[in-house]
């Protein structure tokens, strides 16, 4: 891996938090992701399942983690199962984790080769009553491909029908949403790498540059700073492209006088950052662009202050909607009659700001978090309001990543990334 090794103390803490919430006499199993085929012998780059990474630090395919806090013997309470390196694999792919190296990474002392898994699982099943299965219950999940985890669950249910079934996801949704200090540091590092890429662009963007050239500059800076690359598919949207929320073609020329929306960010050690900034292609905002930009910035700043312990996600978005309504009235994009006659299910402001303001962030860009439960300190959120005006040929979105504090305003992990109009113009013209 490109990133520096993470202290295994983090994964030891994470496992302890998960096992503390397991039911008595229960087993939990977590699988790595598959390597997905493209065609012929081509595959997509491997991306580890975030749950097994969160609990073990293992960043390798064909790995299994088994947790059994009430096992009769201490060496059965945490077990890793890994693919053993053969002579062929060593030559063609390089060595996989050894048992000793797996302990260094994870803090798990009991490590077996994968071929021993079914035999050892069968023994654990004779001792236990409940099996935790790891289904994907994220509110945005839409999975059509059968995953390695899904295949395991199907096999396990057929082989052990007498056992009770419990779900690991509700536990993970809670514990993964509240970050440890080490995790916040990793996200901060991802944000710092994102900053380097963004600053690189401020002297690069000029009229007639293409969106894909901007993408190339970013990925160059990200990789040279130990990132695998983008935390998510980059959105580099010039002119009216910015009014397509998930525009990812990135194939147009940036024209003089236009703005380019950059919803781009680096990952680091599987942790995401998530930034949106606006750059004036010619180095200066027009008066109208600046007026709308500053309205969005004010909404972002006000929304950020609302992210405090005890806040409910749904009510938060209602309050942000009120701030946005005020700004849209000031911009004369809506009037008082629009507000008085609005549909409560789709308020007037939604014509120009149709998406949510914040989501959890961490190992996944849209990270785990139970939206019906109050916010807590050390949760990490994006703050990303926008105003989209197709009739005027531009849209504006601004986004930072912040950490909820015990008291006071959140801590902005992107505090050093230029966002004020004057600073952006100064840097682009220096």
TrEMBL record:
UniProt-listed Enzyme Commission number(s): 3.4.11.9
Organism: Flavobacterium aquariorum
UniProt-recorded Gene Ontology molecular function terms: manganese ion binding; metalloaminopeptidase activity
Catalysis: reaction(s): Release of any N-terminal amino acid, including proline, that is linked to proline, even from a dipeptide or tripeptide
InterPro entries: Aminopep_P_N (IPR007865), Creatin/AminoP/Spt16_N (IPR029149), Creatinase/aminopeptidase-like (IPR036005), Pept_M24 (IPR000994), X-Pro_dipept-like (IPR052433)
Keywords per UniProt: Aminopeptidase, Hydrolase, Manganese, Metal-binding, Protease
Superkingdom per UniProt: Bacteria
Name assigned to this protein: Xaa-Pro aminopeptidase
Domain Aminopeptidase P N-terminal: 6-142
The keyword Repeat belongs to this UniProt entry's keyword annotation: no
UniProt similarity note: Belongs to the peptidase M24B family.
GO biological process: proteolysis
Listed cofactors: Mn(2+)
Presence of the UniProt keyword Metal-binding in the record: yes
């Amino acid at each position: 891996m490109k990133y520096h090794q993470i202290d295994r103390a983090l994964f030891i803490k994470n496992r302890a938090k998960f096992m503390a919430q397991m039911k008595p006499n229960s087993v939990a199993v977590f699988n790595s992701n598959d390597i997905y085929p493209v065609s012929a012998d081509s595959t997509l780059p491997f991306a580890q399942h975030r749950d097994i990474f969160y609990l073990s630090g293992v960043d390798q395919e064909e790995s299994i983690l088994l947790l059994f806090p009430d096992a009769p013997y201490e060496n059965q309470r945490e077990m890793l199962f890994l693919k053993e390196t053969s002579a062929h694999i060593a030559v063609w792919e390089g060595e996989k984790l050894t048992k000793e190296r797996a302990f260094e990474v994870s803090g798990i002392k009991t490590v077996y080769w994968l071929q021993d898994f079914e035999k050892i699982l069968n023994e654990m099943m004779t001792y236990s009553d409940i099996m935790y299965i790891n289904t994907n219950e994220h509110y945005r999940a839409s999975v059509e491909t059968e995953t390695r985890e899904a295949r395991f669950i199907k096999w396990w249910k057929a082989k052990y029908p007498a056992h009770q079934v419990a779900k690991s996801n509700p536990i993970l949704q809670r514990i993964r949403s509240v970050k440890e200090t080490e995790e916040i540091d990793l996200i901060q590092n991802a944000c710092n790498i994102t900053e380097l890429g963004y600053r690189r662009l401020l002297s690069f963007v000029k009229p007639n540059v293409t969106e894909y050239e901007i993408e190339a500059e970013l990925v160059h800076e990200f990789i040279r700073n130990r990132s695998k690359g983008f935390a998510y598919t980059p959105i580099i949207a010039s002119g009216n492209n910015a009014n397509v929320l998930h525009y990812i073609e990135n194939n147009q020329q940036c024209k003089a006088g236009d703005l380019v929306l950059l919803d781009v960010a680096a990952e680091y050690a599987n942790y995401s950052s998530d930034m949106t900034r606006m750059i004036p292609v010619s180095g200066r905002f027009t008066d109208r662009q600046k007026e709308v930009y500053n309205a969005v910035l004010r909404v972002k700043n006000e929304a950020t202050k609302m992210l405090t312990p005890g806040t409910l996600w749904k009510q938060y978005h209602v309050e942000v909607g009120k701030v946005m309504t005020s700004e849209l009235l000031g911009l004369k994009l809506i009037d008082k009659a629009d507000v008085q006659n609005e549909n409560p299910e789709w308020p007037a402001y939604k014509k120009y700001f149709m998406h949510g303001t914040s989501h959890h962030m961490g190992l996944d860009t849209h990270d785990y978090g139970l939206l019906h439960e109050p916010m807590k300190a050390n949760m990490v959120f994006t703050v990303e309001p926008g105003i989209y005006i197709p009739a005027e040929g531009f849209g504006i979105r601004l986004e930072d990543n912040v950490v909820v504090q015990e008291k006071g305003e959140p801590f902005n992990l992107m505090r050093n990334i230029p966002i004020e109009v004057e600073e952006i113009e100064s840097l682009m013209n220096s």
